């Protein structure tokens, strides 16, 4: 039972870190998969393999070298000088993604709950601060609640879309995009999300000493991410192309259900966004603390306030401009992770 508990904690933390505002809202899935038509079914399979393989490898590498943060891992992958530069770029990317998560939370409040956008931002910031002062244990605890609900509602989304006129769209939708762009999408998507996830997966790989728990937790996490991608793609495809106009397209899908289920689903969307915000801000604060020798207790409110300022730009604008850019910048990191042997590793000097 203890072994299974560790496996589930690893998988839940992995899933909760990857599944953020873009994923939960449906925007990320539309951008990288659904708009490319029936071929998205194949590219989601590729992304699932990458998440499973490289997620496990990342945690094992971090544990083998007892890394303090993802900066230690990047020094091993790239060398000290280039690794420092890559870590700085990752730090900037994490800050950008944190603002996207926060903006996504604000959009849930304004678009789905008819509450002020600013209220959503401030409520989320306050809750994040209360939990993040407790560190990794709080992140793992929140994911243990939110992630099982995500999986259940992925099934409900598919069930809800089965009786729609466009239920077969995932098999027949065509795309005008180039073949190269379609086949690059799963690699860009995995590269971006894995690069951002290292902020939590590195300390998680160090915290969980059981190698088998890391391996099986990574398998369960990667496969579940793939299942959730496929479920969301199926449901979003059934409403193409009209669904493209919404900031929170998944919220529009569940409106057909109504009642208690609709409210619970909105809670799940918000929870998915919130868990990734926690993960990104936590990893970012650890990195700033290590690099500049500033106290975590000082860095945390500073990062949250800065994210609040940038989130004023708006969710859809941020995600459509930042995510493809960060995905391209993460491709070098992905390639090096693929070719780098997991062991033996030496701690960085």
TrEMBL record:
Q: Which InterPro entries match?
A: YkvI-like
Mind listing the UniProt keywords for this protein, alphabetically?
Membrane, Transmembrane, Transmembrane helix
Can you tell me where the transmembrane regions are?
36-64, 85-109, 115-133, 140-162, 182-206, 213-236, 260-282, 294-315, 321-339
Q: Record's superkingdom? A: Bacteria
- What protein is this chain from? Transporter
